[in-house]
Here is the input.
Amino acid sequence: MEQRGNFTSKIGVVLATVGSAVGLGNVWRFPTEVGNNGGAAFILIYLACVLFIGVPVMVSEFVIGRSTHANTITAYRRLAPGTWWRVGGIQGVFVSFLIFCYYIVVAGWTLHYTVASFLNQLSADKDYTAYFQNFVRSPWEPVVYAILFILMVHVIIVRGVEHGIEKFSKLMMPLLLLIIGVLMVCSFSMSGFSEGIAFLLNPDFSKVTASVVLSAVGQAFYSLSLAMGCLCTYASYFSSDTNLVKTALSVSLIDTCVAVLCGFIIFPAVFSVPGVEADAGPGLVFITLPHVFNTAFHNVPLIGYLFSLLFYVLLMLAALTSAISLHEPITAYLHEEWHLSRKRAAWIVTSGCMLLGVVCSLSMGVWNDFRIGGLCMFDLFDFVSAKIILPLGGILICSFVGWKLNRQLVYDEVTNRGSLRVRLFGVYIFLVRWVAPLAIAVIFYNELFRK
Ligand code: PHE
Here is the structure.
């Protein structure tokens, strides 16, 4: 059996983890949530959620992964042999598989829009709604792009932790930040800049309700890739001197900054075109923005072309580094527990996801009539993973680290066997024991039974 991979540098650790966190959720979900839920007021609540719930849960996942240096399922089994806690590991691997199957469908759309931007197909005045709908409902186009995307992920995964994930993240994350910088400069010069920034930042505390607070917690979980086995698996490749708390804080900070900056790019563009509404979700990036890019730079089409191309490359890279982190927990499990070579393990994951990914993609079009509980396959995967398994997994992780694990073991991990001074260890334990699981339980209840 090959030797277990490891991240070889601190910067590699941070960039790979940031790669997982920064994804589609930062680019389209966060800005719209901020715009619709009270601007800066939402940002403040979100920051509190990240600090008091996101960071403690992330550190807990790191503790589970790094203390065992094993894939998520083995990690739980080693820490609590012969108990039902192993369900925590199984849910992590299972949920990353489910999410991966539909994440790559949307990731495939980003690839298509990158190619279409490059070929200048988005610039001719067209009905962008019809264009998007025809594309996603086509029986072959989105399928081909999803498969291509998954193959890109596969190529990186088979190269291993150091030469695949770490090397790729070290190359791509700086590029992604550079693209954000360039797009920011462009958006400064747009006519809708002040209006866009005002939409995003004007604090409107009257909009803050209990459900806004819950959306902020949900957004924090999604955006930080929590409770999916991804961070736990990545942490199993951390070295024994990686500072877990510092890494969790840096990753959360960078992820939040990227989300806010994406808002600074999107809204000035949207407000530069009169009559355009700031839509939510896929509609914003695949329908509104192509129209905006085309109209706002009417006089200088070359800038419109470059802006659009860079934006979709940004989206695609963000999706790619996140998709890698969804593939890895399952590959690592098959590799280590089933004693398959990494290549073979990766092929099994890739083929399985390809199959289900195709089903999810077709469920937006020709197979849309096939529904379970009124949901097409794409929505079903999303619902089961994000609304049911994920929150339960979050509660499990917190309870496992807060209540079950030996306190000395947790202390040793968090302080690197006493060599780091972590003054707020007691606060951390309090947050994982009480605050985080209760907050997640409330969201879970609210999402499932109150809507
Ligand atoms: N954090 C990613 C985003 O913001 C989503 C994701 C979740 C990626 C889980 C990997 C694992 O889009």
Summary: Residues 34 and 42 are 6 Å apart (CA to CA). The mean pLDDT is 92.
